[in-house]
Design a protein that fits this description.
CATH superfamily of the largest domain: P-loop containing nucleotide triphosphate hydrolases
Number of domains: 3
Helix content: 25-40%
Oligomer: single chain
Structural class: alpha/beta
Strand content: 15-25%
Number of strands: 13
Number of helices: 10
CATH class of the largest domain: Alpha Beta
Distance between the termini: 50 Å
Strand order of the largest sheet: 10-9-8-11-13-12
CATH architecture of the largest domain: 3-Layer(aba) Sandwich
Length: 334
């Protein structure tokens, strides 16, 4: 199988990086990682490569430096038939969530995404807090955020639902789609031009794998029906995978996420809650706590209903979480 690295995003800047390194290693892009073994897409087809010693040494104490889906790597073929990843090229974007453990570390979900879509199904009901949390994560990653509202064939008025979600995502496009009927897909396809990569992030049952199949015009990811009892989905995708698309570009499918913890994501939070950040800028005092201070624009917006109590509490909760994680990471470094 022949693969065009240019269609997957290899460009002159990355080629210049390779030239500066002055190595005989070959470039490739990681499509999947299984227990330290990478499936690397190369000009000659997929290669299974283990992680080289230099890469492992560089990742001691920081697992996010290990190869991840979407990474551009340099790999080496050995005379005995083995292949190893010898270097990870600098990432342009990185989608990182906090791990569930107590070590205040991060887990790299995907790298070098140009666009990252928060995928939420119209049925049973979009989860506003989850969308806001995931958008904070995407903003922090450096990728361009989208919200994709799926299964719109199940809604009486999908446009109304999309307008509601747009209020949760200031400045972020909201795309209503139905993979079942094939409607609304063209604006999403336009985000995956040759050389660009789209990542899909959301809960199980949201229809991420169906979107991948629709974009690829083939069944490349398995799908399952959601449970009729509660509308929840099963974990159909259990690994992260980069799928090249016909005509160029790629899409990264991720397993359904039950919980996403935020790390030091103050910038991403401000962008996800741009409406609250703008209100705070209008407060009389720069250090306004938005409680009972005079001239607080946030309190005025809450009292008038221009800012909902639910969205305000969501912002406060995420802000406390990020502050807590920032302190934990600082303590761990000390």
């Amino acid at each position: 199988m022949t693969i065009s690295l240019t269609a997957l995003g290899w460009d002159t800047d990355r080629a210049a990086q390779l030239e500066r390194i002055r190595t005989n290693h070959q470039p490739g892009r990681v499509a999947r990682v299984d227990r330290g073994v990478c499936t690397v897409l190369t000009e000659d087809g997929p290669v299974r490569a283990s992680t080289g010693g230099a890469v492992l040494a560089a990742a001691v104490g920081d697992a996010t430096r290990l190869p991840c889906v979407g990474d551009w790597v340099l790999w080496c073929a050995w005379p005995d038939g083995r292949a190893t990843v010898e270097a990870v090229l600098p990432r342009r974007t990185a989608l990182i969530r906090r791990t569930a453990g107590k070590d205040a570390s991060g887990q790299l979900l995907a790298a070098n995404l140009d666009v990252a879509a928060v995928v939420e199904a119209v049925h049973p009901e979009p989860d506003a807090a989850r969308i806001e949390r995931l958008l904070s994560l995407v903003h922090e990653s450096g990728a361009r955020p989208l919200v994709v509202l799926t299964k719109t064939d199940l809604a009486a008025d999908p446009a109304a639902v999309a307008r509601h979600l747009a209020a949760l995502a200031p400045g972020v496009p909201v795309l209503p789609v139905s993979a079942e009927r094939g409607t609304g897909l063209e604006p999403l396809r336009a985000e995956v031009d040759p050389g660009r990569t789209l990542g899909l992030l959301g809960p199980s049952g949201a229809g991420k794998s169906s979107l991948v199949n629709a974009l690829a015009s083939a069944v490349v990811m398995p799908t399952q029906a959601i449970r009729r009892v509660d509308g929840k989905g099963r974990h159909t995708t259990t690994w992260r995978a980069l799928v090249p698309l016909p005509g160029g570009g790629a899409v990264v499918d991720t397993p359904g996420v039950r919980a996403v913890g935020l790390l030091d994501g103050a910038t991403g939070l401000d962008r996800a809650f741009a409406d609250i950040a703008e209100l705070a800028d209008d407060c009389r005092y720069a250090d306004c706590g938005h409680e009972a201070e005079p001239g607080c624009a946030v309190r005025v917006a809450l009292d008038s209903g221009a800012l909902t109590a639910r969205r305000w509490e969501s912002w406060r909760r995420l802000r406390r979480e990020i502050a807590h994680e920032t302190r934990r990471r600082a303590n761990r470094r000390r």
